[in-house]
Structures are given as structure tokens and as C-alpha cells.
């Protein structure tokens, strides 16, 4: 690499949107015949571009990230053979079967031209949908098969500050696919199993440019609900303190 390529472009930041997470489905009786007897699910954990390809049943993955990512190392549970899985080319994913949920360490290594150190992300493998009020934590097998895949994905942005001139050229020559401005698939991402929603036929969720706004609104509603619950509890405590004070006066009189 020429010396001029090792010059950093000061004061400039450039980012690439990614998602990381997993999709999981219940094993069919036929699939279980070829797996350890205790295994119940098949799952795929991955690092992908945030945008989804048109008419795809895969969350994200429209962009090939190999132009700036050299390797992704997935650290699985120690009970798996060869628990550290190094993936040196796209798609950066690992497919396995199992029965339990656990934390996966994801180490992303960048190409040599970047001059950047590896970064580490963490993802909790999700096999079962988040239960709504009154629903069992783990659905019955027939219900799980009918509901379809469980999706658990996190959006993130890898930011490169003061990038090297040559690396900047690599990044700018591979612009990421833009996220859609609005939802074309009305499936929320905070529900692991969209088919469990009333009136939903399931499907594949996707990230959009308005998701940050939607997430902010959702968090604001949750915050209001918590504040309302705190005020309700506070009012109850005040009423009980007054009642206790009244009873103490009666006892002392």
C-alpha cells in the first residue's frame, strides 16, 4: 500500500449499517431423526447488511459486507464442538441445532486496509417468542410450528472515524443499499414471533429508515406507562400511611 494511502482523513466519519441476530424454527419430526435427541430447534445466527433484498424471506442481507469485513468469529456455547466458528467470507452466518438459549459473542474483523481493530458484539440466541400476558413462556410444539420462525435482530451502525484514504475509497465505492422509508411489511421487530400477533399472517420483518422514530415512540409510551404505574403506587402508599397514622391516633387516644 502506498504511503499516501496510509494518510487518515481527519475530521471525517463514515458508517455502515448492519444487523446481527438470529432466526429460529422448531425442528420437524423428520429433522429430529438426524439430530441429537434433545435438540428441538434449528437456528441461524448472522451479521448482515441492514437492508433486505426485494421479495426475500431473509431479514437483511441485501449488501455483501465482504468489501470491508474480513472475518466474523461466532463464539457458541462450550457444549458445541468447535464452539468458535470463524467465517471468512459472506454470508457471515452459522447454522446449528440445539435446545437452549445462550449468549453468543460476535467478533468482527475488518480488512487490513482499514487499520481498524476488531469489535465485539453480543447476542442472546432466541428460540422462543416473547410471551404476551397470559401466554406460556414456551409455546406448545403445534403452536410453534403453526406460528413460524422466531426473529431476533438488532440494528447497529459501524462507524469509522478518521479513516485511511485508501479504505475510505473502498467504502465510498460500495454504498450501502438504502433502507425503505416506510414499512412495506407491517411486522414489528420487538415481537420475536410476528405470527403470534392477532390478525397477522406472519412473515419476515424488515428494518426501515423510520424505525428509530417508531422505536422512540414505543419507548415513550412505555415510559409513560411506567410513570403512571409509579404514581398509582405512590398514591396507594400515601393513602396507607394516612390510614396507619389514623389508627395510631386511635390506639394512643
Automatic annotation (TrEMBL):
The keyword Metal-binding does not apply. The keyword Lipid biosynthesis does not apply. GO terms for cellular component: cytoplasm; Swr1 complex. Its main location: nucleus. It holds the Pfam family YEATS. Keywords: Activator, Chromatin regulator, Coiled coil, Cytoplasm, DNA damage, DNA repair, Nucleus, Transcription, Transcription regulation. It comes from the Eukaryota. Residues 8-174 form the YEATS domain. GO terms for biological process: chromatin organization; DNA repair; regulation of DNA-templated transcription. Residues 212-247 form a coiled coil. CDD domains: YEATS_Yaf9_like. InterPro entries: YEAST_sf (IPR038704), YEATS (IPR005033), YEATS_dom (IPR055129). It is found in: Nucleus; Cytoplasm. PANTHER family: YEATS DOMAIN (PTHR23195). The coiled-coil domain is required for assembly into the NuA4 complex. Component of the SWR1 complex which mediates the ATP-dependent exchange of histone H2A for an H2A variant leading to transcriptional regulation of selected genes by chromatin remodeling. Component of the NuA4 histone acetyltransferase complex which is involved in transcriptional activation of selected genes principally by acetylation of nucleosomal histones H4 and H2A. The NuA4 complex is also involved in DNA repair. Yaf9 may also be required for viability in conditions in which the structural integrity of the spindle is compromised. Belongs to the YAF9 family. Component of the SWR1 chromatin-remodeling complex and of the NuA4 histone acetyltransferase complex. This is Protein AF-9 homolog. The gene is YAF9.
